Amino acid sequence: MAVKPAQQRTTLTLAGRVAYQRAIEEVYWRHRIWPKERPDPKPSLDEVIPPEQVENKVEDYLRNSQALEDYWQKPISAEQLQAEMERMAQHTKQPEVLRELFAALGNDPFVIAECLARPALSERLATNFYAHDQRIHGELKRHAEADLRAHRSVRQMKQTSGKYSEIELVRSDSAPDEENHGTEPGLKMNSREWDENVQKLAAMFGGAKNGKARPQPRLSEGPPITQIKTGVITPLQEDDGRYYATIVLKKSKDHLRLATVAWRKEPLESWRAKAESQMPKVMAATSGNYTLPTISSDGAGGCNDNTWRATAGPPDERYYHTAVWTGSELIIWGGRSGFILNSGARYNPSIDSWAITSITNAPTARVGHTAVWTGNEMIVWGGNSFETGGRYCAIEAASVKAIAVSKASSGAAR
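Above: the chain sequence. Below: its structure as tokens.
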């Protein structure tokens, strides 16, 4: 593909951005899987996504860009947009789809920078800045610290304003299944996974914040399980989505039963909705002499047999979650990460980027559930003795739609 520089431009109207976003959605819709079990034919994009939803997507990335400039004083530069285009081109896992996206945007590097690179980059940067901003989360942190000072025992942990949960870790290559008791499934680990988790816990008890340890013994030397105290609450920890503290209820050579109390941070989407000013109909684009990158078809972007590569902006670690493949995205939801989650994320392999899913109207947090792809929605059902579920609309990407299904009619959904 021949490269061409863009002419200097500084604005795109909202209508122009919406038209380009529509062209992007058309590419993704062509690759979207329509399950063979569905008797109805795959509809056109116009039948499944109304114009206002396309406009909402555009306004979302403009709000992220505005927040980066106004709230964090980190406006996106032309150099960053060019680097994001280069990253996409070099690391795409679906080069043929990325070529279609470039073509849908006229192979114009200015338009690609503003309408493909900016949405992914602005969301990733805004999410990262937001996650640990003490101006936003400081009050919650102080509340959690005060809660912990007033509730120091296991019994009292359940009386805090945080969400309390328990889980059992089991070294599976030596622990018999019958010892894995409790209403929730224990997390079975091999010896290496076990040692890594024990070291993380030891770091927390050693006074390190965020589970980051001081230098620990090599795994071959064995985990520092003696540093893990039973019945003592760790200092307050933090990750992208919560503040939390953990207590070991019981430990043995092959078992650890943990209790965690967590205080969830306000989601970015709800904070942004409250903090945003009036959305401008025309936003100044970032001018620059952009160059259309060459899309890789092998090496970093291709698929080399039996190899792994990191992806950009992965979500919080979790287990017991579900995942569906839509044909253009991987969507994961639910699971556990010390506590049960009702959050998820979408991975777009064509641009090699993750985005968080909305938690508006999300179903109750759960593990052990089932998920299926319908052609335009991810449906989750059951788990943790629930007889409820939810629908995540992957076309509009606007919200998770909660649904309730009666026990009498739920047999086919199990």
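The first helix runs from residue 14 to 31.
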